[in-house]
Amino acid sequence: MNGTERIRVTRAQVLAHRAAAHGLDRSTPAPAVLALGVQDTPAGSAALALAARGASAEGLERVWSFRGAPHLHRREDLAALATALWPADDADATARLSSTVIKEGARLGVEAFRAAALALRTVVTGPTPKGVASAGVTALVPRSLAFDCATCGSRHVSGLLFQQAGLFGAVRVTAAGGTTLAPLDPGFPLPTAAHGTADLVEDHLRFLGPATPAGIAKSLGVRTPVVDAARPADLTEVDVDGTTAWARTADVDALRAARPSRAAADVRLLPPGDPYLQARDRELLVPDAARRKEVWRAIGNPGVLLLGSEPAGTWRAKAAGRRVDLTVTPFVPLPAAARRALEAEADLVARTRGASEARLLLP
């Protein structure tokens, strides 16, 4: 850790720096944030996130990766990502499976992930409906990794394990017409030990830094001691409005120089789960508690209106035949230039969703 005097940066500088790192200025057709993948919850949102950056989802693989959530990743990144996400030890594996339904099975630690991944590789040899794959995996893993489900009346493998093992099982996940699994081609060997986790920590700091070790751990879906152990060498402690966090030393000058955009027309419509919203310092992103509750709900998060680098409202889309109706709810009155720019952003959302037109609804 850099031992020099702690750097102080403001919330505005941090958000401006992140927005630039995310490629939200649309300066490149291949945003660097793909190094961390793009979450696709709900299905189709990743395509919207990439469109907000001037990119497309073409050629990307949809897999269960961080925290078992579906993400789009570059195919060439998947083998290294699987090795980097492999549990660091039994304690890390058990913590990832923290659940009342398989408490005994979770104690198997790394072996639980190995058994589930091997079972997926055995069962998923072609396009396989999720339910069929789950039943096949249930029959092959230790009994303690499954439970009696009161909802469906059958015994099946823990969904928490099933999805977190998906990347290790080298399967892709499609959502059209129901969730279907298929083997990745080319595949890659089952990891035997974690390697490259420090690269994931560094990538998180590159796009969502400065960040605390606990925040990084939550984002990656690992224990905080794993992040501490995988700490990259060249970091600097920074003070973000009173909170101590890690930053890459290479980013310090850019952080100090970062300034929010003052262009009223600099607007983006970010979907739920957008990479920009994945930072765990939600109080920094949206300081007002009532507005945070609007952005991050227990079920059915809205999208976020970004004005420069500032979350400035929420939005929802509803299909109406070949049209998409977008209802935007700003936190504060919008300048006329921002309202005009939203028309183009609404059209972009409609095109990305396969609609022919958009109707923008503003208060």
Write up what this structure looks like.
With 363 residues, this protein is of the alpha+beta class. The chain has 15 helices and 16 strands. It has a 5-stranded mixed sheet, sandwiched between helices. Strand 6 and strand 7 (155-157) form a beta hairpin. The longest helix is centred in the last third of the chain and has 17 residues, at 336-352.
Q: What would you say about this model in short?
A:
The protein has 363 residues and is an alpha+beta fold. It has helices at 11-21, 45-51, 78-85, 90-96, 103-106, 110-123, 130-140, 159-164, 197-208, 213-220, 224-229, 252-257, 282-285, 289-295, 336-352, and strands spanning 7-9, 38-39, 60-64, 70-74, 128-129, 146-148, 155-157, 171-174, 180-183, 235-240, 243-248, 267-270, 303-307, 310-320, 323-330, 357-361.
